[in-house]
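Colleagues,

Please find the record for the two-part complex below.
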Amino acid sequence: MREDQIFLLPGPTPVPPQSLRSMSSPMINHRGPAFKEILEEVTPQIQKIMETKNDVFILTASGTGGMEAAVANFTSPGDKVLVASIGSFGERFKKICERYGTVVDFIDFPWGTAIDPEVIREKLNKDKKREIKAIFLQHNETSTGVINDLKAVSEARGEHPALLIVDAVSGLAAGELKTDAWNLDVVISGSQKAFMIPPGLAMISVSQRAWEVAQKSTNPVFYFDLKQYKEFLSKGQTPWTPAISLFYALKESLQLMLEEGLDNILKRHRLHRDMVRAGVKAIGLELLASDEVASPAVTAVIAPEGIQVNAIRSLMQNKYNVALAGGQGKLKNKIFRIGHLGYVKPTDIFAALASLELVLTELGLKVDLGVGVRAAQRVLLERSGENAHTSQ
Amino acid sequence: MREDQIFLLPGPTPVPPQSLRSMSSPMINHRGPAFKEILEEVTPQIQKIMETKNDVFILTASGTGGMEAAVANFTSPGDKVLVASIGSFGERFKKICERYGTVVDFIDFPWGTAIDPEVIREKLNKDKKREIKAIFLQHNETSTGVINDLKAVSEARGEHPALLIVDAVSGLAAGELKTDAWNLDVVISGSQKAFMIPPGLAMISVSQRAWEVAQKSTNPVFYFDLKQYKEFLSKGQTPWTPAISLFYALKESLQLMLEEGLDNILKRHRLHRDMVRAGVKAIGLELLASDEVASPAVTAVIAPEGIQVNAIRSLMQNKYNVALAGGQGKLKNKIFRIGHLGYVKPTDIFAALASLELVLTELGLKVDLGVGVRAAQRVLLERSGENAHTSQ
């Protein structure tokens, strides 16, 4: 396998060369001034990306570790919680919440659709005794390529005291997320997504209200004990030895992100989404999610009748060196997913669409060669026109 | 600060150039054949290093995460456990065990000494009802530079059914550890020690007896759920997205380790220990641990009367670019520690001892310049002679 894949997974995502190179730097003392400098540089930068003044911590773990940290720190056994699910990662929140002995009201929206905020509003309105302690949900559901309207969910919560706990592992810096403006109590993210670094770090923000809940939590928690993270952050340290090399990469990638600016990053993700969707539609394939809820991070494509998902993915990989993802959970063998998250460029999308056209042709589908690429080019052209216009 | 420090911490430890470079490789799919190949290559190699046929898993977490995984998977609330402590990491095991609701019998041996196996034997003999479920202990206590005699502790356990759960984070591949021969049920290690890679991975081995206990554990555990790790390993995967770059480095470092051979690695660690100890003693400083229990990973040196530990460490760092560790817990400001663990070479030790002689002189101590270096040289010379002799 060539190392220089066209790497269109919804995580891990491509890592910029300067971030990759930074990881070859020698070790430093994680209790010394050099590490402190990095930690104190990147932490406020992540706050900026999360649009928050809340505390933000960086855990050495994958995104799932961040999800568990949220459940472990901000619930107690017996707590009533809502888990609003639209896919595989919603189910993961349910599993973790159950593992920690909460009483889960699982709202299972159809896969490929977004959360209906009215359902949440109704659940909370009926909860006259204010027994619901937390609402768990995804910002972006990686398994289906759907983005939730967090602002609307937050408004639906209204004055209800339940914490809003958001898995934004694949959504942060791909789709809009305003932690403070939308009163999101806990936001979890992961390094191997829009942060453009390898997997191994999880980020988590904590509101004041969430801290009050954490004080009373009776769960056993040690490695993910966020109170320890807070105490050590005040010394410029993490409580346990951090994945130092990944911090080197984080520093480089955040530099790139801040140079580009959050608005431009979000615009870029919308552009790439629209290019992919236009291209795939023009090829004649069906998308799982409707345009209204389409994820700026990943697009789920329904495999055409009679063609195996694995056949498409293998040919894409083996003939053209393009990495695509398959389906998860109940969508396994039914969809393939094109990631357009993080350090992806328009030319990657052209290349992937051109390859996809050939692969589908080889697999017996009638494809008008170049049709997908042309549709993506048109989106790019229009969007450049708009930008030229608005900048006048 | 120069990047090329003489890096003598007991973790993180120096990383070989080829392992550092490997981390600049682009991302791969953690659910694809390339990652599977790495995971299936490194797992049996770690079994070799651990001298075990037991299951071995690699977690994306620091060593503390591995310690928590052991407590969470192999105890249940209310279980009676022994924690045999000889320092700061023993105290950490106690904290984690308490957090998980076990009833801890904490045996607090004096810091700087090793576990007395007779105390364990007596505790277990008195436990006629076989209520003690597990014994937690360190292989090597990083905070004091003392190595425990695991074989003797295992013999002291005898037929008692308590699990033997060993934190070998800093000890594995520095000091002898025979998982199977000594019936160690759970062995935990970490990447940033003798494995010579950056922090971020923890390794854990699990015996059949430990699995039986895990089946009945009632703790909430998700990210560290080893049953999930077992299920996914059979597919060549980890349950959650792994720190891919660190696996690249692990593959390189294990290659180096197996080329050197475990016996030679252990011999090298003993040599470096003896060089450091001889040098420090010749300078006129006092060591915390006696020769009989001295750690092959790290040496704790008692700060001379009237000289601040921080003054020594700062001058060593700022003038000579030599990184040393301070004391932890009740040894803070009383000792400094010289790590000689992992990718350290004799010339690093000469350089560190020469610098230490100058720093102590500057701080007002009367030091016969060169005396420490000479003592270390003599150890090296003798040892080379022995090797030359035995190889005839």
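The radius of gyration of chain B is 21 Å.

Comments are welcome before we finalize the supplementary table.
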